[in-house]
Amino acid sequence: MDNQFFKSIEKKTGVNMNDILQLANSLQNANFKDENTVRRVVQQVSQIANRNIPKEMEDKIVKTIVNDGKQLDFNTIAKMINNKK
Questions:
Q1: Which structural domain range is residue 61 located in?
Q2: How far is it, in rounded angstroms, from Cα 53 to Cα 59?
Q3: Cα dist. 77→9, 18, 40 in Å?
Q4: How do residues 59-79 score in pLDDT, each as one tens digit?
Q5: Which domain of life is it from (predicted)?
Q6: Deepest in the core among 4, 59, 69, 74, taking most CB within 10 A?
Q7: What are 18-51's pLDDT values in tens digits?
């Protein structure tokens, strides 16, 4: 992709595209039924999004993904983090 395109997205969102690309690469062969794997990904997304999430919210997200079969992608986790109550 065009480097200028990524720079534009970084400027608008404040999110480093290298971080997102690294996360995407780590998701490709990850076992989403493994709690430790899912927890690590949730923590990475939280860090990339620059959002602190309480332990109980992290536990809820992990449980939802592992037990309920929710699809794991950046948008799913980001939405859960942004909707924390």
A1: 3-82
A2: 10
A3: 19, 18, 12
A4: 988 888 888 765 556 676 667
A5: Bacteria
A6: 74
A7: 888 888 887 788 888 899 998 998 888 888 888 8
